[in-house]
User: Which sequence fits this backbone?
């Protein structure tokens, strides 16, 4: 079969949605080994780390830094309920944004030989759809959540409001012309069918996954480094984590909490950590291999989450990062992705109270042997049951058969 050229169209900058970065680094970039030729197409710059060779990066704008600032301002506005409700009183702002994106994309694609477009998130799917009549490549869309639902659960929009209806209609239109929609969970696929009447025949489920990054779990005598590499947002449940860590550190003052230095609610997270007097360190590694080396030096991985539908159906990337390095996991049980922890035997599931989560963390600190066994279970489950190579093959098939 001749080489297939895939134009990977991004909706937002790198180092903003860490789950999206995970998807690119662990499940899209490796597709080059199947002979796919990847061209990353974005309105923004490549960030702190350019894609590895032979992947090519193309910026649609001469001044990407200006567009990144505009993106940050828009994101800020959409996280403020009053401003979000003003912006979404009509479709005009969304349509202008989409038209600007699609015009730049059309000019670029006119001079490129692209066999299939892989649109990351609905906005990129909408831009690809607008140029399809002239460029005509098939469109595969990779969806990690439902934007309209997230605006409601974050409190930016009211559930039955005119603005919520506008956001949903816009998102549905963006997805309308995609030939194939790749989703990160069965639950997300079902929600797309329910909300937007998308035929299940157009949906392909490819769960998050990552190749093992450690040969075996670390066997320790003391556990003190607690990590949660989550973007600080409403749905990550970081208040629950912080309040539980105040209880853990009361009994184990030597423990240290490590959080990501990223996210819309980071200032609030830092403020609460300071108020609760939690020993906290903030980190971020643009280089994903440096991140995995850091993660291997941690002792317990935490997944906390809000209990809304959007979080249950959007599987957290950090869960798979923990499995990849053999970290024992403690998480509040919200259903959905929690089943991975239950099936793998990689961790402890608790209720969603600070006391419950603290009890789970403390039990591992008191029992390093059990922590080692859970970490080993997770790494073995990743290798044998999740089979990362099969997920890559499924992504390759979705692109080459579009």
Assistant:
């Amino acid at each position: 079969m001749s080489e297939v050229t895939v134009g990977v169209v991004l909706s937002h900058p790198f180092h903003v949605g860490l789950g999206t970065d995970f998807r690119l680094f662990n499940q899209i970039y490796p597709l080059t080994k199947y002979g796919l030729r990847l061209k990353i197409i974005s309105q923004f710059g490549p960030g702190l780390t350019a894609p590895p060779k032979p992947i090519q990066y193309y910026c649609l704008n001469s001044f990407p830094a200006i567009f990144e600032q505009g993106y940050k301002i828009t994101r800020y506005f959409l996280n403020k309920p009053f401003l979000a409700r003003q912006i979404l009183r009509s479709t005009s702002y969304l349509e202008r944004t989409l038209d600007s994106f699609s015009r730049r994309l059309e000019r670029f694609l006119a001079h490129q030989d692209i066999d299939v477009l892989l649109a990351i998130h609905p906005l990129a799917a909408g831009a690809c759809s607008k140029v399809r009549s002239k460029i005509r490549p098939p469109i595969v869309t990779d969806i990690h959540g439902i934007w309209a639902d997230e605006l409601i659960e974050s409190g930016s929009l009211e559930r039955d409001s005119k603005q919520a209806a506008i956001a949903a209609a816009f998102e549905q239109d963006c997805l309308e012309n995609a030939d194939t929609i790749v989703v990160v969970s069965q639950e997300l696929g079902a929600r797309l069918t329910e909300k937007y009447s998308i035929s299940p025949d157009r949906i392909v489920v490819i769960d998050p996954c990552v190749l093992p990054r450690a040969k075996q779990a670390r066997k320790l005598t003391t556990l003190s480094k607690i990590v949660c590499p989550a973007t600080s947002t409403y749905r990550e449940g970081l208040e629950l984590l912080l309040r539980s860590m105040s209880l853990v550190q009361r009994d184990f003052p030597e423990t240290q909490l490590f959080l990501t230095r990223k996210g819309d609610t980071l200032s609030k997270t830092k403020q609460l950590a300071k108020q609760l007097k939690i020993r906290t360190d903030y980190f971020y590694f643009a280089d994903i291999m440096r991140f995995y080396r850091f993660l291997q030096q941690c002792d317990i991985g935490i997944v906390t989450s809000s209990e809304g539908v959007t979080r249950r159906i959007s599987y957290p990337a950090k869960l798979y990062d923990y499995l990849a390095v053999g970290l024992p996991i403690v998480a509040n049980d919200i259903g959905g992705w929690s089943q991975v922890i239950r099936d793998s035997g990689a961790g402890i599931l608790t209720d969603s109270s600070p006391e419950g989560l603290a009890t789970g963390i403390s039990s591992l600190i008191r029992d390093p042997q059990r922590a080692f066994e859970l970490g080993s279970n997770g790494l073995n489950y990743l290798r044998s049951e999740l089979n990362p190579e099969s997920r890559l093959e499924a992504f390759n098939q979705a692109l080459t058969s579009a």
